[in-house]
Fold this protein.
Amino acid sequence: MRRRFISIGFLILLVVCWELLSAGIGKPYILPSPSAVLGSLWENRREIFFTHLPATFTVVAAGGILAVLLGALFAVAMDWSPWLMQALYPILTVTQTIPVMCLAPVLVLWFGYTVRMRVIVVILVNFFTVTVDLSDGFRATREDRAELLCTFGADRLQEFWLLRMPTALPNLFTALKISVPWSVIGAAVAEWLGAPAGLGMYSRSCMMNLDAAGLLAPLMVLTALALFMNGILGLIEMRLMRWKGNL
Amino acid sequence: MLTLENIRFCYKNSAAPIFDGLSLRAEKGSFVSIIGASGSGKTTLFRLLNGLEQPEEGRILIDGEPLSAHRQYASYMPQQDLLFPWLTVEKNVMLPMTVQKKPKEEAAAKARELLRQVGLEGWENRWPRELSGGMRQRVSFARTLCAGGDILLLDEPFSALDSITRIQLQEWLMDQWKQLNKTILFITHDVEEAIFLSQKILVLTGHPVTGLMEFTVPMPKERNREMLLLPETARLKEDLIALLRREAKAEGTEGAERIHDADEAGIDR
């Protein structure tokens, strides 16, 4: 609790410093004050919250969920087949180093400025993390536990649900928590390239108008969105992993 | 009765066999300890008995019938408790029944009964991390009983415990055996533990193991720790220690190579 007070206190201090610095510089198109950003958010609340936020959220949710499903599918397949694991795992670890975001313009060429393009960007940004993290989780399964289950007469499916999946669960949550902010970033970047609606697109149009406060306002919403989703994930994690004690 | 006839077994990737012509008999309801130097094949013997490995030659019979005719005839308790940390104590105990797809209610009732039997009533909904080492071993024992086998294969279950807990659990296991009417095969490194618990001690000797040296413990079923000081018991202890020492010495010359082979094959023997 005390630690939380310290971090909140420090955050307030930073915001106050920002406000003072902005007033000192006196050029709101270079550094808008936090109050100006909040003001802009309030002024354009209808547009931001009812047009752009739902558009971005759709892309984040669809892309995020598909990335997790696809990533999990690959991880399970690799866990099931040692051959697939040997063939794919080294490639996947290497592909993690590719800055997927830079591929976004290519996707625009292929799919145009569509929702599909933006969802694919989000999938590509997260897919490898989920696969590699979950796959590492499966590989952490203790062989002696697997053999014990075998002596009880367990088949492969039972071994998967009773042992391998619970072993990999902490890794899955790590992957999900990394995926949430990256989904938001992926969606925003894809919208920056061009979209009919979305917080990234709104932010870009504000930049064109040299409206720095308007540019930062949707970023605040994006941050809040990522924090909110990670908060929910944290609650689910706490519920599912009570056995670990203090998380 | 459990019978092994002329078993020959060799791990893949290892040139030398572990067993060659090994035979063994354990009477129904008896308590048999198996001792031997490190790497002599004690754990391998259990792996054969619980079906994790198959012999190249020879037969394993239960009451005269081949092993394949019996389902869940043996229940295995590993050296480490291997409790699943994400399952409550009760769910850990009922795990074998969960695997066997028994009705949930029946499995839970059985698990509660077994936990009462091992003195852990009231701990059903706790997590394994909340238990001490001795309690975890008792949960592991309850889980072994839940598997329902008539033969219990206990692989050094107390080796990781401190000496006081170990003595307490030895006495506790003794009581359990008297009540359960099960055959227990008990692997241990500890000669005194083997003498205190069992009626018969089998020593694995030679490389490969071709036969077992059999010793009958000169103590009645109803026994206590003071009996370990009796002259005949003390003599048995000295004989066994001398035998294991000789084995370890022989192991020293040729064993390193074999253990290296087994390590290469990734096997804990």
